[in-house]
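Q: How do we represent a protein-ligand complex in a form that can be generated token by token?
A: Start from the inputs.
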Amino acid sequence: MLKKQFTALLIAAAFTAPTFAGEHAHGDATVAQGFIKEILAVNTSYDKLHNAKFFKELASGQHPRATVVTCSDSRVHTNMLDKTPEGDLFMVRNIGNQIATSKGSVQYGVNHLASSLLLIIGHSKCGAIGAASGDFSKLETPIQAELTTIGKVTGDIEGVKTNVNNQVAAAGSEFADKIKDGHLLVIGAVYDFADDMKMGAGKLNIINVNGQTDAAKIAAALSAKPAANEHKGH
Ligand SMILES: [Zn+2]
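Then emit the structure tokens for the protein with zinc ion bound:
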């Protein structure tokens, strides 16, 4: 019982910690051995669930409608937004859902796979945002590098939103021509499993469309007819 309470305390501490501190722990290879067995069993049933046509289609190539940039956080996954992500979502993941630390991957999805939606997803209780808001000079150098690019943020949900808006702005500069020509829509959203935005726990809240952050303008941008372009059908 005590151990349970202690574990609950540890979990609570990890959720509220302003830095990555508290997430430090050693893994256990015996846990890993058990987990890989589970993984293989799940893969076997996945294999059975899908027919040969499904895999043949995947093998023939990919035409993902969206390039999605999310945080690496284990609480954030595509099943909250797409029932069949295979072949449809080009996934880019890093700490803090950033353009800067995965620029090549984002460029590949948008420029070479021709995704017409670039979806950038932050999330509540983001450890990277918490860490970036404080002193992270004691962390490993590569981690420091990936936190520096987040810039100045607060460690709460406002910081998460600021970061998403900054990432949409970065994408807006990078892909300005594509956005102007109606080839690309850049959307910033927050997956709020903690209900920090008071819109409902687990909701994906869109907070930015092509740089627009005003709710009425977002609604208008989402319903507006995309700009005419000469490459329709691509
Ligand atoms: Zn995160």
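The domain at 62-223 is CATH 3.40.1050.10 (Beta-carbonic Anhydrase; Chain A). The first strand starts at residue 66 and ends at 71.
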